[in-house]
Amino acid sequence: MKAAPAVVLALVPASLALGIAFGSVDLAPGRLGEALLGHGDEIAREIVWGVRAPRALAGFACGGLLALAGALLQALLRNPLADPAILGVSGGAAAGALAAMLVGAAAAGVNLAALAGAGLAAGAVFAFSLGRSGWNPYRVLLTGVALASGFGALVGLILAVAPQSQVQGMLFWLLGDLSPAGDPTPALVALAACAALAFSQSAALDVLVLGDDKARSLGVAVPRLQAIAFGCATVATVAAVLLGGTIGFVGLVVPHLLRLSGVHRHALLLPLSACLGGSLLALADTLARTVAAPAELPVGVLTAMIGVPALLLLLARLR
Amino acid sequence: MLAASGLTLTAGGRELVRALDLSLAPGQCWALLGRNGAGKTSLIRALAGLRAPQAGTVALDGVALSAMRRRDLALRVSVLLQDEESDFWGSALDYVMLGRYPRSGSVFARDEEGSKRAQSLLAELDLAGRASQSYRTLSGGERQRARVAQALLQDADVLLADEPLQHLDLRHQAVVMRALAARAGAGKAVLAALHEPAHAAQHCEFAVLLYDAGRASLGRSSDMLTQANLEALYQCRLEPAGARSFLPS
Question: Is the pTM of this model over 0.90?
């Protein structure tokens, strides 16, 4: 399957174009084209440039960040089940955001609380996994999973005591929702920075499949690599969660889709994960906005509904 | 020259090596013999800078390993470990090529030189026909030879091998021993943990015997590999095996 990189790269403009072309309001192709070029009526221009383009880019950034984090964590922990949620960061952010919603905080307050929760979780994972002899992947996994389930319980408690009127907003946040995303620029910058930093470590990540000791004997400064890659994965996860809530499956499934298509070297796997994750989330979000328009579905539901069958299909074909 | 001085290693409350002085000079081939659990692996890991000693130092040309950058160390010392990951996504050649990491340049450049060397190492280790076969589908002995090829591709001045002959049939034990001895012949320092004294006698000029409780003795193989020494080392009676014991010539 040598075509995988080309297909993934072609998906990027295609997914963004679809995100701009479709929405709850029907724009005729002529009006759409004029608005794209900055001509035509103001309403169409506002829909294209003020609403749909930022939303498509937010979806792309969010999916790219999650998939990149997933690819990094799977390599670092040498565990195919690793995904951004196991860092506990998503859970921490969710607990923070929901607590802020419960006390009636504004959007900025919700984001701040989510950031605080994510920071708390990341700090705890790092504190418990950084031993005298460097990072211990098993402790990262254990701490992350324990924190995630702890935060899960907290989230459950908040949902149970929250007034009925607030529960739907909370559920959307939990399922992943890009409608309050706003300006995607910070997330795109985070994506570019994390991808570039992770890419610079790609040869060392390739060697890490041989185990920590063998990698060290081949010249990889393993503790430094772990610090960079865990740092990258954490920042990427936090940036994604702040933008779209806890969107599942992208981080787990996208790197596997690529590996099953024969992409293993990290110099290719990391950038393609970012591209494919971004495209798939942008596509899923376009569907989320349009299938039940004018109502919106939580995009996290759609990523699961697309991602899981796609992975199973590929697994079945390769049996 | 890789030199350990006053090296003391303990594990699980047992003293494995006590105040050992050992120098591996260029061109020397050393055998490391000892009972199971005597500390052969711990000694090799310490010599490779993968494990900190309880006391003493390991130094390369006078510089302590702990003070060297990993990449610089990897250019000088390569190690074949006893337990290496057996799952790998690519071909045997892809696997061996990871041995080029310390010398690798840009991820975009094709490493023609490395690829050529890797192919010739695969041929030397009787794996020429396996180059493009998936590493996962190789047999245990074939994987072991691919690991040896990877360690040789690293092309370091010192080559440490922990049980290089594990999983190998008679013919391929000889193939690997000859490959190691040839590296010593080409001016590298080689140390290999072995279980068969006859291999040590045939290919290694020097031997380290690791006894229990941290005691070790070292010297020329011809002096070290005597029946009395080996009986004390393995704590069992030995007798010449006669006409039913064979080693490849």
Answer: yes
